[in-house]
């Protein structure tokens, strides 16, 4: 491959005609500047590019920043980036991060100036050595390194949590060392990575920080400078040793890059590379060759685990191409779906977030923006790769299929820039691609993969690149796979797909403590659950807890349903407990459901032959059309694939009696299991035991601040009257937490004090009593930091106190009080139970107070309680309007100094530690308290809302961010797409976030940048509960939204009362027009009221326009719209 340059001078052809303007042109949009610091206040110093993304969402395809005297122009659209990629007019600049990196690698290929002599010499010598033939020769060495990683994973077993950032960095470090220099770092042969690797990681982190700090702060960071210098000196000493060893002991038979650097000659000048340049290039290869590749592998793993249907396609392709055979070089081009997935990963979010260029002379871009050669032009790759003009309306979706069937070849020029651009693009692109495809093929051939934490949401760690942070997963060898499958010397086999596989054998300490001496007599069974709200997990743990009493044990413990992929045993019964989320599987069941659907579609009817199973489903009837969809689907597909159903499908409606149907189904299943398994162990009850210790001094509660936010304000916005009191709360999130409009704030509440007091009084406990809980495997009762837990923490933060008593629990109380005819009636008469207990929400505690003679012990009471579930609230703010705040400014609220000021820089330098920045979000919530309890016991108090309502500003709040269950419940990626929003009451929360986001864009770019948006908002009284009235009026005036409020009880005289669906019906012509223009409908509110009525009025509008359509056909049409055009986030 010839170098495009023939001589060293900076090539700026005189025959290039730069565009010009007749007039002054248009000013480049930019945020308001502040004296001295310019736009530095808009920037998160710990995550620079996240601020670029936020500002691009506000200001659009081009904007400028003034950062301490330096001008940076950010371009984010394909149209502008295509122009800036013109090599005749623009070239790479090393200002910024790359300039800092020159301290480490000097003038290597990556960091050299475009007219630097060393770059020409190195480029002309090295580029031919990284051509296709040379890269093909590296294949065996790549397989060698990958095999070390997968064999290590295999040895550690299925319970081991693999750290993706750690192990993929080890892999890519080993690969580049072996392939480029024939040097083995042996990163997988020790628990800790080699010093060279940690020194490089530390140096990269520090280099990234240096660029984003003020000069005064860098000057004050003495220890950071000394550490960086020490790391650089060590790395260069290792490189010098490798070079000296090769010179002393030449290996001319090797075709590696080190030989090329040592003995190659520049074909133009005849020069050789100096030892210093070789050392710089050595380090350049290690940085560029491992950091970006490992980041890509982590992103790809995360994306596939979050999109299990795509993961199944990867498995299917690898099985078809490789089978169980050893991987060979010829397999790589045949793995088309893996190639598409890798390319889509780099498009969706890759490790390189931007490319820096500058113009060779003064010029104009976009036909109207003047550009100075001294300015840095930052190509925002996230903006480019999500440009809807190139990638369509689904640009924000992860869809590898877009690069299949000619999609890759038809991609416009300069629309995909994951490896840089032009002559300064990544020279190791072919090496990285071959390495990644090889690794993925061998991983998928051998392992089933699952998230270690099914609820993990992507967190980004920025260095000079970006990659997932704290990302862990588990691997389990696929059934029937030999230990050496896919590796050199492995036997060639036909593909097989057995249903059963190797199960997990590791047991937690909690389970070991729960085992009895009769464990040898206990029959095994497997329990899998799917759900994110803890309900299904609670049922699963409840069954596990009761199993020994009926002669069974759960040797593998309660497992996520995704762990059942290709892993359903045939030697023991399988119990599956799962839920639906608006008709879709929960996060930790997506892979399992996708596996069943894929194999059923392929006609593998005997896949699960020999598997005995039972399914129990949890759901909420308010989601009428998707009620229990996933449990029913799993139950039917397993039968279709050959499994044997041993118990009819059990179902519970969690909006009513959450425990009764479960307990009845469980009681019916145990006898069936005993008969099926031949269990003979004596049926015996186990009891939770609680030991109470009265300390001499109060115990100190401990909590982790890592997941703790700070409440900035908690303001009443509507007084109680026509409805419940409503409040607006702003929360400074824990460091590193990020969110998008449409996400949830998940809150861990504390039970109301009055409820806690009632429990204490009933059982003679004190708040500071220390309790020791044994005899149970339920994690929420035993997972303490210490051996003991205070009575207050156990009752206040671990268990639900107000859940209605189940009929079986009523029967247990009746057995304790035989003289009570009332309890006997409630426990035996279903109608009486429903009217007197379930509908009045009478808890076990209520019954104990109603029947004080009942002798239920505290241990027995505790065994009846469910775990305290976290509550989630739709976020009512947009991150675009809240610049990140460095966490160093919030550690001590009474002394706040901005990092962007000289004083703040000095304070940060004194601490000599960079923390992640914090962002602010808000929630809007009803305060549900004060009304008489239906049970007749005092006043009702909602657990979470009453807790939140009483927290003043400055309080700490245990919270985290969770992505929306409806992945498309977002604003459309194309701002011109019309939006129809429907909300009622506090369902305004996500709509406020969306409108706030649109208003920010309108303020920066003008309302013409937006498509039309209308909000249908249901309130009771125009004078009392019209939430955010003034804000909505201001945003309407700015052109961000058109507000159509509906007042059901008291409306302005000129308007009249109406419900939301009635206003929509009156506006149906406007609705039709917007929908035909591509509008996305977003709905938030009560599922049983607003959700149902909005659905019905949309069907009614559709049928009016299509009179030939039947009611059933209209419903089918509506279901299709709910895939991507009609999106709801409704609650029960």
UniProtKB/TrEMBL annotation:
Region (Disordered): 1-31, 498-517
EC id: 1.14.14.1, 1.6.2.4
GO function terms (MF aspect): aromatase activity; flavin adenine dinucleotide binding; FMN binding; heme binding; iron ion binding; NADPH-hemoprotein reductase activity
Classification via PROSITE patterns: CYTOCHROME_P450, FAD_FR, FLAVODOXIN_LIKE
Cofactor needs: FAD; FMN; heme
Residues bound to heme: 426
Regions of compositional bias (Basic and acidic residues) in chain numbering: 1-11, 506-517
UniProt similarity note: In the N-terminal section; belongs to the cytochrome P450 family.
Name assigned to this protein: Bifunctional cytochrome P450/NADPH--P450 reductase
Gene3D superfamilies: 3.40.50.360, Cytochrome P450, NADPH-cytochrome p450 Reductase, Chain A, domain 3, Nucleotide-binding domain of ferredoxin-NADP reductase (FNR) module, Translation factors
Ranges of residues in domain Flavodoxin-like: 525-670
Catalytic activity: an organic molecule + reduced [NADPH--hemoprotein reductase] + O2 = an alcohol + oxidized [NADPH--hemoprotein reductase] + H2O + H(+); 2 oxidized [cytochrome P450] + NADPH = 2 reduced [cytochrome P450] + NADP(+) + H(+)
A Gene Ontology term for the protein's cellular component: cytosol
Listed Pfam families: FAD_binding_1 (PF00667), Flavodoxin_1 (PF00258), NAD_binding_1 (PF00175), p450 (PF00067)
Alphabetized UniProt keyword annotations: Electron transport, FAD, Flavoprotein, FMN, Heme, Iron, Metal-binding, Monooxygenase, NADP, Oxidoreductase, Transport
FAD-binding FR-type domain: residues covered: 704-972
Keyword field contains Transit peptide: no
Transmembrane segments: none
PANTHER family: BIFUNCTIONAL CYTOCHROME P450_NADPH--P450 REDUCTASE (PTHR19384:SF127), NITRIC OXIDE SYNTHASE-RELATED (PTHR19384)
């Amino acid at each position: 491959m010839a170098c495009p340059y023939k001589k060293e001078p900076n090539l700026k052809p005189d025959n290039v005609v730069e565009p010009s303007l007749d007039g002054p042109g248009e000013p480049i949009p930019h945020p308001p500047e502040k004296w001295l610091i310019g736009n530095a206040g808009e920037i998160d110093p710990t995550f620079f590019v996240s601020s670029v993304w936020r500002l691009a969402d506000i200001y659009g395809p081009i904007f400028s920043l003034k950062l301490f005297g330096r001008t940076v122009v950010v371009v984010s659209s394909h149209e502008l980036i295509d122009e800036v990629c013109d090599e005749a007019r623009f070239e790479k600049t090393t200002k910024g991060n790359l300039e800092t990196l020159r301290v480490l690698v000097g003038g290597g290929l990556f960091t050299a100036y475009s007219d630097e002599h060393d770059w020409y010499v190195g480029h002309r010598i090295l580029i031919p050595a990284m051509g296709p033939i040379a890269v093909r020769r590296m294949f065996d060495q790549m397989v060698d390194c990958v095999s070390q990683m997968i064999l290590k994973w295999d040895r550690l077993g299925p319970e081991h949590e693999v750290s993706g950032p750690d192990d993929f960095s080890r892999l890519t470090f080993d690969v580049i060392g072996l392939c480029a220099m024939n040097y083995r770092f042996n990163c997988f042969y020790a628990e800790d990575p080699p010093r060279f690797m940690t020194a490089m990681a530390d140096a990269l982190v520090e280099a990234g920080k240096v660029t984003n700090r003020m000069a005064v702060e860098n000057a004050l960071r003495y220890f950071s400078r000394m550490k960086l210098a020490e790391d650089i000196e060590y790395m260069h000493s290792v490189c010098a040793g490798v070079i000296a060893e090769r010179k002393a002991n030449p290996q001319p038979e090797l075709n590696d890059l080190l030989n090329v650097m040592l003995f190659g000659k520049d074909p133009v000048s005849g020069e050789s590379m100096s030892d210093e340049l070789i050392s710089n290039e050595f380090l350049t290869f290690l940085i560029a060759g491992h950091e970006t590749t490992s980041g890509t592998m982590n992103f790809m793993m995360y994306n596939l685990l979050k999109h299990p249907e795509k993961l199944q396609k990867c498995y299917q392709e690898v099985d078809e191409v490789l089978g169980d055979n050893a991987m060979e070089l010829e397999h790589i081009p045949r793995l088309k779906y893996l190639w598409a997935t890798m390319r889509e990963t780099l498009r969706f979010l890759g490790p390189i977030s931007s490319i820096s260029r500058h113009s060779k002379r003064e010029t104009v871009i976009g036909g109207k923006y003047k550009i100075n050669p001294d300015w840095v032009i930052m190509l925002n790759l996230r903006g480019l790769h999500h440009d809807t003009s190139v990638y369509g309306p689904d640009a924000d979706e992860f869809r590898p299929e877009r690069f299949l069937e000619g999609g890759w070849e038809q991609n416009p020029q300069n629309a995909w820039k994951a490896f840089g651009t032009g002559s300064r693009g990544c020279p190791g692109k072919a090496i990285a691609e071959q390495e990644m495809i090889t690794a993925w093929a061998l991983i998928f051939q051998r392992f089933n993969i699952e998230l270690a934490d099914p609820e993990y949401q992507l967190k980004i760690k920025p260095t000079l690149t970006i990659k997932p942070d704290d990302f862990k997963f588990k691997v389990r060898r696929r059934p029937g796979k030999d230990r050496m499958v896919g590796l050199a010397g492995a036997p060639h086999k036909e593909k097989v797909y057995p249903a059963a596989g190797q199960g997990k054998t590791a047991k937690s300490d909690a389970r070991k403590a729960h085992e009895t001496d009769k464990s040898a007599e206990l029959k095994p069974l497997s329990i899998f659950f799917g759900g994110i709200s803890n309900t299904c997990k609670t049922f699963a743990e409840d069954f596990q807890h009761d199993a020994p009493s009926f002669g069974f044990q759960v040797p593998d413990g309660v497992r996520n349903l995704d762990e059942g992929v290709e892993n359903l045993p045939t030697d023991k019964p399988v119990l599956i407990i799962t839920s639906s989320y608006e008709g879709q599987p929960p996060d930790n069941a997506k892979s399992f459901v996708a596996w069943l659907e894929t194999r059923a579609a392929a006609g593998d009817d005997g896949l699960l032959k020999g598997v005995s199973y039972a399914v129990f489903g949890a759901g909420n009837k308010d989601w009428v059309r998707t009620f229990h969809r996933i449990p029913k689907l799993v139950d039917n597909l397993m039968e279709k694939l050959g499994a044997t159903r041993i118990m009819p499908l059990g179902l519970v409606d969690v909006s009513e009696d959450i425990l009764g149907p479960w307990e009845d189904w469980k009681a019916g299943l145990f006898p069936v299991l005993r008969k099926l398994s031949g269990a003979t162990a004596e049926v015996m009850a186990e009891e939770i035991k609680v030991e109470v210790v009265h300390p001499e001094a109060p115990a100190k509660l401990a909590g982790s601040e890592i997941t703790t936010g700070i409440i900035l304000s908690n303001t009443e916005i509507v007084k109680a009257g026509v409805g419940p009191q409503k409040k607006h709360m702003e929360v400074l999130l824990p460091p590193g937490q990020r969110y998008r409009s449409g996400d949830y704030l998940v809150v861990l509440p504390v039970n109301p004090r009055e409820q806690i007091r009632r429990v204490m009084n009933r059982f003679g406990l004190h708040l500071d009593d220390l309790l020791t809980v044994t005899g149970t495997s339920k994690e929420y009762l035993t997972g303490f930091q210490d051996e003991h837990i205070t009575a207050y923490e156990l009752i206040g933060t671990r268990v639900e106190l107000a859940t209605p008593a189940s009929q079986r629990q009523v029967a247990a109380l009746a057995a304790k009080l035989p003289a009570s005819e009332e309890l006997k009636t409630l426990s035996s008469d279903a109608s009486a139970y429903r009217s007197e207990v379930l509908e009045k929400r009478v808890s076990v505690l209520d019954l104990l107070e109603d029947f004080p003679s009942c002798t239920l012990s505290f241990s027995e009471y505790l065994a009846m309680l469910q775990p305290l579930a976290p509550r989630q609230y739709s976020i009512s703010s947009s991150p675009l309007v809240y610049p990140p705040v460095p966490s160093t400014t919030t550690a001590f609220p009474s002394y706040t100094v901005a990092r962007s000021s000289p004083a703040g820089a000095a304070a940060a330098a004194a601490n000599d530690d960079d923390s992640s920045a914090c962002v602010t979000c808000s929630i809007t919530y009803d305060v549900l308290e004060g009304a008489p309890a239906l049970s007749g016991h005092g006043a009702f108090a909602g657990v979470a809302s009453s807790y939140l309502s009483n927290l003043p500003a400055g309080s700490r709040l245990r919270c985290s961010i969770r992505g929306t269950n409806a992945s498309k419940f977002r604003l459309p990626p194309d701002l011109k797409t019309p939006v129809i929003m429907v909300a009622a009451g506090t369902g305004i929360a996500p709509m406020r976030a969306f409108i706030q986001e649109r208003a920010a864009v309108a303020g920066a770019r003008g309302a013409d940048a937006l498509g039309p948006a209308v909000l249908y908002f249901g309130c009771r009284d125009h004078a009392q509960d019209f939430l955010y009235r003034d804000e909505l009026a201001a945003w309407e005036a700015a052109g961000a939204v058109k507000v159509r409020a509906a007042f059901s009880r008291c409306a302005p005289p000129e308007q009249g009362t109406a419900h939301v669906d009635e206003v929509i019906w009156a506006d149906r012509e406007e609705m039709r027009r917007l929908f035909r223009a591509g509008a996305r409908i977003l709905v938030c509110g009560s599922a049983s009221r607003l959700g149902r009525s909005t659905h019905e009025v949309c069907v009614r509008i559709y049928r009016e326009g299509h009179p030939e359509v039947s009611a059933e056909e209209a419903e089918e049409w509506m279901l299709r719209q709910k895939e991507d055009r009609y999106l709801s986030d409704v609650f029960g």
